[in-house]
């Protein structure tokens, strides 16, 4: 039932970096477009970015130039590399296939001095 498991969140100071991982348990993972999403307290969930099956990426303007999505189809894993983190990046981060309604537990990222 649980297809994607996020990990790697934590507390980081402004300007710091963090790598999030998304482990997939689906034998057809390599064919999926995957997305990273986040939800901050009191706000709607937003899409951070996506990566296609062939590695093409697209990012929200708020993270463009700071975040990078990558995938390793051998390991069935998608990564979110976050740099130059800002307090407004504080949120629970999720990975999922676009258009899928089921959401996992996510991983908490807190950016604070």
Helix-residue proportion: under 10%
N-to-C SSE series? EEEEEEEEEE
How would you write the strand order of the largest sheet? 2-10-9-4-5-6
Distance linking N and C termini: 38 Å
- Give the total of beta strands: 10
Q: Total helix count?
A: 0
Radius of gyration: 13 Å
Low confidence ranges: none
Structural class comes to mainly beta
Mean pLDDT: 96
What would the principal axes of the Cα set say about the shape?
Answer: globular
How much β-strand is present in the residues?
A: over 45%
Main sheet attributes: strand count, strand direction, barrel closure: 6 strands, mixed
List keywords for this structure.
113 residues, mainly beta, 6-stranded mixed β-sheet, 4-stranded antiparallel β-sheet, globular
Give a written overview of the molecule.
By secondary structure, the protein is mainly beta. The chain has strands at 4-7, 10-12, 18-24, 34-39, 46-51, 57-59, 67-72, 77-82, 91-96, 107-111. Strands 2-10-9-4-5-6 form a 6-stranded mixed beta sheet, with no helix packed on it. A 4-stranded antiparallel beta sheet has the order 1-3-8-7, with no helix packed on it. The radius of gyration is 13 Å and the shape is globular.
Task: Summarize the model shown.
The protein is an all-beta fold and 113 residues long. The protein has strands at 4-7, 10-12, 18-24, 34-39, 46-51, 57-59, 67-72, 77-82, 91-96, 107-111.
